[in-house]
Amino acid sequence: MIRGGKVLQATFEKPDAMIFDLDGTLFQTETLLLPAYHAMFDTLRAEGLYKGETPPESLILGSLGMLLEHIWQRVMPDVDPAVHRRADSLLLDYQLEGLRQGDGRMYDSVADTLSRLRSQGVRLFVASNGLEPYVKGVVEHKGLAPLFEGLYSAGEFQTRSKVDLVRMLMDTYDVRSAWMVGDRSSDVEAGLKNGLTVIGCDYAGFRKEGELEGAHAILSHFEELAALIK
């Protein structure tokens, strides 16, 4: 738990399941996102849908964890919503193409740590605010699909918040106890409002000050996760 600006680390009983955010938690998002982001704006300009310079990378990186419609409201606030929908399509296409070409990296020790947890009987899930083809594409192209029991995305289930997405996942798979593992305030909220132990991830560098307030423990490296089990 974060109290008075200090992180108090503890260990916890092994849960039935762990539910992971994707971007900034398992996947080093910028390694795939930023080339696709620039290609997307090049195409929008070529199609006459956007004028001016590409917005700073910091705008989209700082928006990770939000629903796409909210991301574009921050990145391109003054364009027609139809341009936002075109941006959805283009960004997804460029990211999937990047994955097919081998672009994008998982954080260090993700595969080994997830395999270790699975071998200990922990059920593994993803809950992401991203689009379904992107979420499933990352996990599949990086060879991690066999480790996960379910991959849930806001894009697939049209949920308005990660709280709802996680609750749906838990109900569907009859999850009795779980840890919510993620790097954004939406992950903390989703965990706490569903009665879960929340593990904050503080290595992506995208979060705002205080964003992980309320997390029960904080990771500086993903491989620290397994050591939190009693």
Structure notes:
GO terms for molecular function: phosphoglycolate phosphatase activity. The chain is globular and about 55 Å long. Helix 6 (132-141) links the parallel strand 6 (123-128) and strand 7 (150-153). The longest helix has 20 residues, at 81-100. The protein folds into 2 domains: 2-29 and 105-228, HAD superfamily/HAD-like (Rossmann fold); 30-100. It has a 6-stranded parallel beta sheet, sandwiched between helices. It has a two-stranded antiparallel sheet with strand order 1-2. The protein has a two-stranded antiparallel ribbon with strand order 4-5. The chain has 9 helices and 10 strands. It starts with a strand and ends in an 11-residue tail after the last strand. The protein is of the alpha/beta class and 230 residues long.
Mean pLDDT comes to: 93
Output the radius of gyration: 18 Å
Distance from N terminus to C terminus (CA atoms, Å) equals 17 Å
| Helix segment tally | 9
- Tally of DSSP β-strands: 10
GO molecular function: phosphoglycolate phosphatase activity
GO cellular component, one term: cytosol
Protein name: Haloacid dehalogenase
Pfam families: Hydrolase (PF00702)
List the topology elements.
Blueprint: E1 2-3, E2 6-7, E3 17-20, E4 27-28, H1 30-46, H2 57-61, H3 68-75, H4 81-100, E5 105-106, H5 110-119, E6 123-128, H6 132-141, E7 150-153, H7 154-157, H8 162-173, E8 178-182, H9 185-193, E9 197-201, E10 217-219
Parallel strand pairs: 3-6, 3-8, 6-7, 8-9, 9-10
Antiparallel strand pairs: 1-2, 4-5
Helix pairs in contact: 1-4, 3-4, 4-6, 8-9
